[in-house]
Amino acid sequence: MRAMICRQWGPPESLRLEDMERPPLKPGQVRIAVRAAGVSFGTSLVIAGKYQRKPPFPFAPGTEISGTVIEAAADAKAFKVGDAVYAVLDWGGFAEEAVAHEVNVFPKPPSLDWAHAVPLSTSYPTAGAALLWPRFMDLQAGEWLLVHAAAGGVGMAAVEIGKMMGARVIATAGGPDKCAFARAHGADHVIDYRAGDFRDQVLQITGGSGADVVFDPVGGDVFNQSLRCMAPEARICPIGFAGGTIPSIPANILLVKNLTVVGLNLGYYLGWSPHDARFEQAARMADLHRRLHDAVEAGALRPHVDRTFALEDVASAFRALLDRQVMGRIVLAM
């Protein structure tokens, strides 16, 4: 089978298209003929050797796929050959075939094509877990939700889920095109962060009260500014540091305003942490994915793919992503 292979840490341009043996099928796994694979900032860190998980060389990167089940282990009962699915992998997605634990595989909504099913692997579950799970943000109807990087794959998902839950959504994005994109996906108010600080604008929009819930994939100064435009007893969830800086949390502001900070690492529930929790968390994740599946079929969620690239053009796909030329997601089409 063909696969994009990483043999040393480096930029995406270091990946090479090679013919490789099919990955072995282990108990509890299914083999999938890959039709589409997601390109993400996190995967760029894996390729560079800067992610907390480092696969053994040589390996095919890629953790999000959609495709057709072509083989199932004897003890894998959830799916059968021919089923259309999307899946989360440890790695191996940038290939014509991949294997996945069946607890990390989910039925593809019939209304979505292969490319548009890919964001359901991690983008929508990240936003869904942060906003919907009671131990996290537990977003309620009528609350003010502030979503940063709202034109990105995870931010866009947070905007849509917020509207689905009846929240009043304020989105930040960079530039008029991305602001228009966020508004088209449901944001009630959009702030162009390139035009100045968003703090005063959030306070003005909310009548001085501030945001009740903040979804932050950016970190750095965005996180610090957010603390200063949050309502008393508000919640903020950092889910990444795309801005490149990990903020230090000023505990005095948390105390004075009675704020709650809850981080979310979705990878813990996917089996990507030192403790492999994917099996003990399988029912919880399956319930979240069923909820997202139903929302897609009801038209409440509309995954967006900015563009697709061929497998051999993966370096160009990463360059578009890292140069911030993307709205929604970028996908490799097999």
What does this structure look like?
The protein has 334 residues and is an alpha/beta fold. It has 2 domains: 2-122 and 299-333, Quinone Oxidoreductase, Chain A, domain 1 (Alpha-Beta Complex), CATH 3.90.180.10; 125-265, 3-Layer(aba) Sandwich (Rossmann fold), CATH 3.40.50.720. It contains 11 helices and 15 strands. It has helices at residues 41-48, 114-117, 123-132, 153-164, 176-184, 199-205, 220-227, 251-257, 267-270, 282-297, 314-322; strands at residues 2-5, 16-19, 29-39, 64-72, 84-88, 97-101, 105-107, 144-147, 168-173, 189-192, 211-216, 230-238, 260-261, 305-310, 329-333. Strands 3, 4, 5, 6, 7, 14 and 15 form a 7-stranded mixed sheet that branches. Helix 3 (123-132) packs across helix 10 (282-297). The radius of gyration is 20 Å and the shape is globular.
Write the layout of secondary structure elements.
Elements: E1 2-5, E2 16-19, E3 29-39, H1 41-48, E4 64-72, E5 84-88, E6 97-101, E7 105-107, H2 114-117, H3 123-132, E8 144-147, H4 153-164, E9 168-173, H5 176-184, E10 189-192, H6 199-205, E11 211-216, H7 220-227, E12 230-238, H8 251-257, E13 260-261, H9 267-270, H10 282-297, E14 305-310, H11 314-322, E15 329-333
